[in-house]
Amino acid sequence: MADFPDVPVHPQATRRLVMRFDKNGNPVFDSVLSPESFAPRALCILPKRHVIPVIFVPGIMGSNLRATAKYDANQPPAWRPPNGTAAGLGEWFYRLRQDATARQKQLTPEHCEVDPTGPIELSDSTYTLDEREARRRGWGELHWDSYGEILLTLEKVLNDQYESSPDGHPSRLMPVWELAKTLKYPAGQKDRDGNPLPTDAIKRWNKVAGGDCPPLTDDEIARLDDYYYPVWACGYNWLESNADSAKRLVQRIQDVLKHYSHPDCQFIPEGRVILVTHSMGGLVARRAAQLAEKDILGVVHGVQPVGGAPVVYRRFRAGTETKGPFDALGAFAAKVLGWSAADITCVMANSPGPLELLPTKHYPAGWLRFERHSGKLRETLMPPLPTSGGDPYKEIYSVRVQDKWWGMVDETLIDPAGLAISDGKNGLDRYSKAITAANKFHQNIGLSFHPYTYSYYGADKGEVSYGAVHWISNDVLSEEMKPNLISCSAKSWTHLGESVLADGGKEIKMVLPRASKPESNVSENAGDGTVPRASGGLLTQGGEAIKAVFEMNGFDHQFSYKDPTAQSAVTYSIGRLVQLAKSIKDLPQSKGGAWSESSSSCLQESA
Fold first, then answer.
1. Phi and psi at residue 137, in whole multiples of 5°?
2. Model-level pTM?
3. Count of domains forming the chain
């Protein structure tokens, strides 16, 4: 080995050590001895002793699933959304070769469980946990491409509120906390269309409901530093009812609090957790809050389908939507999620969770429409459904395609694997059971929210959503047929959104076109590309429980938590919730011998 000349070491040189945790959840730092000629200091930053865990709850299809041992543990993962291009191509080819029978067997609720072995990719700047601890906290249960960034971001900004100077001493607040303190963005920033953005954060976040949202004061910023905020995750079997998933979340909350309450763990819990949710995870958390409100300090929801989404009906009849014939990414995703009604029905008709994303009675009535288009002419062919004050379960969801041409579910597509036969039933029985569970969940959850709720949702004209679903015909219907259209059966239909009706000796074609592009951010089809504005906006009806609702644009549904503006609003909301926590002077300051024992353990293992 060549000799290198002596290079003087900066007297303040410091390297920060990654914190890991022992079996009891106590922090440990590992280091090595270095020669006298190379003497950087090892920086070990211990977290505060009092703890408020933060638990992230993903959306539908955001949890990795595997086959249960009872079904067939040797099966490939039942659902592991691809991370990266190569994995995406592999998943696409896999689904391309999979028929409806195999798809149903693999993705039926009782055949699946949460898979905790998904990939975790920590960054070089992650100092507050290692992969082993991240996996213990459930991070491997979630789709990493969708949620890895927000997990890492929350872990960093909640536990390192200050940016350190080279000598390891705090120098200034992180930008996200400086923003929470001033509620001011730098001037001159523009949106994706080149329009100037307001510097006022509340205006940029577009608060549409809730009380005042004042900046965090110096004392409130200082109070953030009283607690340690380990970020956990809770995946769930999204094929099951959200009622079952809520029970799993409640168990995770209790397990996490028990983990930090253990006498051999040095941390002292405040006694409650903060929940952060994405999409359908908001429904899970709302039900969990009904079951265990006392264990939850507050909730921050992102892009929650509060009242469901009409696009679910459309998928039952036409498969997963795309943006047009040249939408390669949309076609790619559609094949993975379900290209046609056959791909969709064999899974969703047997699964309460996806059915619970159908529009509830709280969604604006009349979202299923029937029209004739001829040039600029728009003629209503029959009254829209559901009727005002009506029951969408009776009026739409229980109607078969075999009975009425616009019915939602094709009975022949429900059970291609014949799973109902072993129970002495048929496919429609399985669907009835699943839709009944969904109806019960909707009734239980209503418009109930945790008493301290913050939220954001999308209202973007650039993210086309299905605020309503239209059956359209270009054909002229006879006057004799129009009164009977609502009860007419189809002569034939496809799995891609077409129904053919017989009108005397003439055929009438009805189709489900793609949603039209909205004209503004408040138009019916504006949203986040999945959840329409009308559904997310139902949060504004939550009364005193709603502390702030932000109606935003600039992101799509799946990756909304990657948007910097959404991240800053979520961080601010968590900062406000922390102010509701108990003062640490009112909590125990000691906990047996755990503190001294774990501290010596840290030193011994770091030597």
1. -85, 5
2. 0.93
3. 2
